[in-house]
Amino acid sequence: MNRATTPLHYLASLLLLVALFVSSCSQPDKVGETNMLYGTESKVWKTDKETTATGDKVAQTDADEDTELRFFANGTFNMTSSAQTMQGKYVFDQPGKKITLTPDGGTTSMAFDVTNLTEKKITLKGADGSSMMLEAE
Q1: Interacting residues of 6 by C-beta distance below 8 A, sequence separation 6+
Q2: CB 52 within 8 A of CB 22
């Protein structure tokens, strides 16, 4: 075995291993299947954190931390907090990565880009660029 190629071979293998590790740790956000939103019949999501359009973290109030958003398999939702209760219908466009919430009796709907959806986390991005990260309960 040639000693001159052994260190280069070792270095190349080490660099390849580091590159594989870095790429596996920095997986881009993904939007999973529709049922990840509501589980079997329904799923509760709680606010984890919020950011402004510039990426600055928004301080969570007690009401924010107590807010629950529940999606049902039948296309309805309810949101409860100490400050308000809202219910209505939602439409989740999984291929388009968008969700629209329309409160009962409301004339205005709220549309969000879904930038991440897994079994345990969802990230909603508003039209103004702000984001809300929620965790499944």
Answers
A1: none
A2: no
Query: Structural domains in the chain?
Result: 35-136 (2.40.128.280)
H helices present in the chain, as ranges = 5-25, 35-38, 62-66
| Amino acid letter, residue 20 | L
SS3 sequence of 105-117: CCCCCEEEEEEEE
User: How far does CA 1 lie from the centroid of its chain?
Assistant: 52
Instruction: Quote the CA–CA distance of 115 and 29 in Å, as a whole number.
Output: 6
Distances (CA, A) of 93 to 47, 52, 89, 98: 22, 24, 13, 5
Per-residue pLDDT reduced to its tens digit, 66-121: 889 999 999 999 999 888 899 999 999 999 999 999 999 988 999 999 999 999 99
